[in-house]
Specification:
Layout: H1 14-33, H2 38-55, H3 61-68, H4 76-83, E1 85-89, E2 102-109, E3 112-119, H5 125-130, H6 138-154, E4 158-164, H7 171-175, H8 178-191, E5 196-205, H9 206-210, E6 217-221, E7 225-227, H10 231-238, H11 245-252, H12 256-261, E8 267-269, H13 280-298, H14 303-319, H15 326-330
Parallel strand pairs: 3-4, 4-5, 5-6, 5-7, 6-8
Antiparallel strand pairs: 1-2, 2-3
Helix pairs in contact: 1-2, 6-8, 10-11
């Protein structure tokens, strides 16, 4: 669990947060002054449940984007702490340095030895700076490849947790071969002959995400997002204005529900009402159970079958692509 929770109020959650604060205040008064105000607290809790259910009933793509980016949302290290026993982190790419934005290591998942890879954003200013907000440099993707090789040698299933706005776009990263590192990481995903399960837990941004999400099974939390570019980037390119970010979010079809329909992902993990940022323990249980279900199915396949299935899965996506007509382009 994060040690420092950021105070963030999403624009559609203002009334919800106000009621939460009232409940917390009354509970504090009740303990300190020994007052019997349980009826009022109960009434507010009922109101809170109703407000949350109403707000989360029909979320727009932009609202889901806000939830996916919520700083209190569980991140990769949180999932590792909750789901992976005896986790041993592995550092460095054996070429340049260690990239803290890419977490890698081995451990036990429900009694099965696994290799784990994932981007870590951090929860407060100190950890965000340490992990570079989850944006990996080339050495991060080369570390991921090193772990994939290790997993292949030891016959370990690979679990990846995707949570990044994208690969780091800095000059130093480009000078060290960012594009090549991402492409090589995708290629490595296709080569391994062990089960690969990717779970998009927050943001899945561009090649920085697919570099560790080219998997036999791609799972996605219901309020996560996965797209070729950020909504802000899309708006600035197509409309030359970040004011069009909501329109861009709609056009990108980046929600789990859209991506399941287009067969880009394989399964949606439904978050409790109110989002993963409010229900950490529940989401750990849901994610763990879903990964376990898919892993048990993949463990029945031979190494060659795993590699073939993964390749055909992504080749099928390209076959389903439809060219954009001139009329659609004008629109």
């Amino acid at each position: 669990m994060p040690q420092e929770q950021a105070e963030v109020v999403l624009d559609f959650e203002t009334e919800i947060v106000e009621v939460e604060e009232k409940i917390a205040h009354l509970q504090k008064i009740s303990k300190e002054e020994d007052l019997d105000i349980e009826k009022e607290i109960k009434r507010l809790k009922t109101k809170l449940s109703r407000l949350i259910a109403s707000a989360y009933q029909n979320l727009t793509p932009w609202q889901k984007t806000q939830i996916a980016r919520h700083p209190n949302r569980p991140h990769t290290l949180d999932f590792i702490g909750a789901l992976i026993e005896d986790f041993v982190p592995l550092s460095g790419d054996r070429r340049f340095s260690d990239d803290a934005s890419m977490v890698a290591g081995i451990g036990q998942f429900k009694g099965v030895s696994v290799a784990v890879i994932g981007q870590e954003k951090g929860h407060d200013l100190q950890t965000r700076m340490k992990h570079n907000f989850g944006m990996a440099r080339p050495e991060g993707y080369r570390k991921a490849q090193r772990l994939m090789d290790l997993a292949t040698r030891l016959n370990l299933p690979i679990l990846s947790f995707v949570d990044t706005a994208g690969a780091y776009p800095g000059i130093d990263a480009e000078e060290r071969g960012q594009a090549e590192a991402i492409a090589s990481s995708i290629e490595k995903c296709f080569q391994v002959k062990v089960p690969v399960i990717a779970t998009i837990i927050g943001e899945g941004g561009s090649g920085g995400a697919i570099a560790i999400a080219t998997a036999n099974r791609v799972l996605m939390l219901s309020n996560a997002i996965y797209s070729v570019i950020s909504p802000e980037g899309c708006a600035s390119i197509l409309w030359r204005s970040v004011d069009k970010v909501k329109e861009a979010t709609e056009a990108l079809k980046l929600t789990a529900q859209d991506l399941k329909k287009y067969k880009v992902i394989d399964d949606i993990i439904e978050e409790p009402v109110g989002g993963a940022h409010r229900h950490h323990e529940q989401i750990y249980q849901l994610v763990g159970d879903t990964i376990a279900k898919h892993l048990s199915e993949l463990l029945e396949m031979t190494p060659n079958e795993l590699k073939k299935q993964r390749t055909e899965k992504f080749m099928e996506m390209t076959r389903n692509l439809k060219p954009v007509s001139s009329t659609q382009k004008k629109k």
